[in-house]
Structure formats: C-alpha cells, structure tokens
Amino acid sequence: MARRTGRRPGNPGTREAILAAAREAFAERGFDAASIRTIATAAGVDPALVHHYFGTKEELFRATVSIPVDPAELLPGVLAGGRDEVGARLVRTFLAVWDSPVGTAAVALLRSAVSNEWTARLLREFLVTQVLRRVLDHLDLDPAELPLRGALVGTQMAGLAMMRYVIRLEPVASADPDTLVAAVGPTIQRYVTGDLGPTTRRSVTGDPRG
Amino acid sequence: MARRTGRRPGNPGTREAILAAAREAFAERGFDAASIRTIATAAGVDPALVHHYFGTKEELFRATVSIPVDPAELLPGVLAGGRDEVGARLVRTFLAVWDSPVGTAAVALLRSAVSNEWTARLLREFLVTQVLRRVLDHLDLDPAELPLRGALVGTQMAGLAMMRYVIRLEPVASADPDTLVAAVGPTIQRYVTGDLGPTTRRSVTGDPRG
Predict the structure, then answer these.
(1) What are the b/e assignments for B24-62, b being 16+ CB within 10 Å?
(2) What is the interface size between A and B, counted as CB pairs within 8 Å?
(3) Residues of A with CB below 8 A from B175's CB?
(4) Of A22, B141, B150, B200, which has the fewest beta carbons less than 10 angstroms from its beta carbon?
(5) CB within 8 Å: A151 and B171
(6) pLDDT per position as a tens digit, A4-49
C-alpha cells in the first residue's frame, strides 16, 4: 500500500473501473489466469489500490459476482462429518445461505446469469474455482472424475435454487430444510462419492434401448 | 366451427389477442381452472375461433409457452420400460428434446421464466399439469407423495437444462447423452419411485446436526 495513484481512494469511479476490469478478466481468462496486476493495468490504477479496495483476488472475484458469502468460511462445516455426510451437509449449508437475507443477492445473480452470457461465465467460473473445486479437493477422489462430479452437483444445486427461489414450484418452494436435505442430500452424496455408471469410466458404443 | 366472429380468421391481431388472454388465464387461474370459453370472452372472440386457431386447451397452453413438443406424445416412450426404467428414460427423452432444434425454444422459455414472473407461473403450471402429473399418474405411486416427487424431478431436470444449455458448465455441457443418463437417471428414478427419507413420511422435530 506504499504507492498510490493520483486518484482519490474514495472515488467511486475508480472502484467501478476496477470492478469492470475484474469482471472482464475473470469472465474472459478465468479466475486462475486473471491477475490483480493485469486488472489494475486495465483499470488504469496501481495494483495496491485494487488490494486496498477489494482485498485478495478471491475477494475481488466475489465482489464482481456480488456474492457476500465466502465459500471458504463455509467449507469446514460442510466437511465436518467426513465424506459420508458431505451430501446432506452441502444441501443444508446451501439452503441456509439461500434462505438467509444473503439469498436475495444469490437469486439476483442466478437471474442475471440466465439472461446475460457475461454473468453466466462469471458464475460458472465462480462455481468451479471457488465452490466445487474446494469441496472436492478435500475428499480424496479420482482427479479424472472431479469435473463431472462437480458439474453434476452444480446441476442439482442450481435446479434446487431455480425451483425453490425463482420458479417457486411447490412443495419444494415451501418445504422445510430437513425435508430437502433428506430428499436431495443422497443425490449430492452419490454425485460426489458414488458410482456414476459405466460411461464415466469407459467409452460405450451407445445404449440400444435409447 | 359453425359460427364465426366478424373478424377475419387470418387477422394476426386476433391470434395475438387470444394468446394474451390465454397467458393471463393460465398464469392467474392455472391450467385446470382456465377455460376456452373465458379466454375467448377475454379476447373478444367466439370460442370456436380459439379452437380454430389453436386446437385443444392443451395445445393452446403449449402455444402460450411456445413449446412445440407435445409431452403426451413422448409419454409412451418414457413409460415403455415400466417403473424401474422411468428415471433413465425420462433423462434420455429430456436430452433428446433439448438437444434437438426444438431445444432453442426451450432455452428461451427457461431464460424468460427466470427473468419474468409471468412466464415463471406459466412454466410452473406447464411442468405440473402437462409433464410431471402425466408421468407420475401412470406409475401407481402414493398420491400424497406425488407433488414432492414431481417437484424434485423438476429441480434436477431444470438444473440439468440450466447447466448444459444456459450456463454451459463443462463437462456437463458437452457430455454425450449416455453419460448423463447413467449419471442423472438414478437420481430421477429415486425421486420418482425411491425412498425420500423420513421427513417425507412423518414430521420431524429438526436435525440437531444442522
């Protein structure tokens, strides 16, 4: 934080310029390849100012997708019961976040991702690098299967959010968390640690019943 | 089709007026309570003209949500293997429709439902009355459990569509149908015929681990 640009730190234009450059970098290059330095250059500011406003790269990324929850803080709770409970705990944690006041921002993000390719890319990148990868990395799974397992978890979680909070399909929209944890937890558990069928382990020549 | 109003049958304004009245009726009153007669009255036309343009009430409903596929025609294929194969067949049929040229309209409907409460109501009503109810009615299940089972199927199918066709999360976006049928079929099978946990059968006092 030694150097400062000539801009005033409180300038809302500077903050917005950094956010815009970060959105573009994360959406176009992905979280891993984007750097604070290139984002700062694109925004015309010193990298130290980016850190000053937004903290770490992870925090800057969460700011670009307007997610006020840090997945890293939720992770210990999800993993506390070990591999065999990760499905139920992931659903319970997910519902606790979306049912809380923070859920409004999450619903807005989901709506935006569906109508806007830019936000869709950011959400996809966020899901993969900040949520799914972190959970799956702790579970000693076959690395070759991680992308499919993570994406399948994403399908069920996104659909649960869609139906409960956006489309509001009953009885899922009003169901208590226990009901949904019991119903959906085993799905997530199987996607994370279970058998996903022969096609995930070897190529097949097509299902003649199809 | 004996009587005709004074309007020209080819008048695009008439067709649009009927569609607008139908959308409002289906979204506000639901598919079961809405009638061709009240829709015709609201549109200022004779009921026969509604039938002339759109056919049955089911066909009119599909026109309001721009779905060019008749779920009733797909039903025999889904049910052909009996109860034990309904999960895999539902996923395979779903993917065949969405992967086809018709899928473009389905993606547009999904996008619209997320950003528009009106379309969300229509999609919800369509899912329940035209898709889920028809499948579940043929499977000899406990009627008390049907709404939850149907809605859970809806969560997984909506999330699969979101991630494969809208957010385009890999490897689900590019996976061949066999892989997804093997991975997601058992989820749907359990939601339709399997055990959904104690909370679906009796009230519970909360999970102390939550």
Answers:
(1) bbbbeeebeebebeebbeebebbbebbbebbeebeebbb
(2) 183
(3) 148
(4) B141
(5) yes
(6) 444 445 577 899 899 899 988 888 888 888 899 999 999 999 999 9
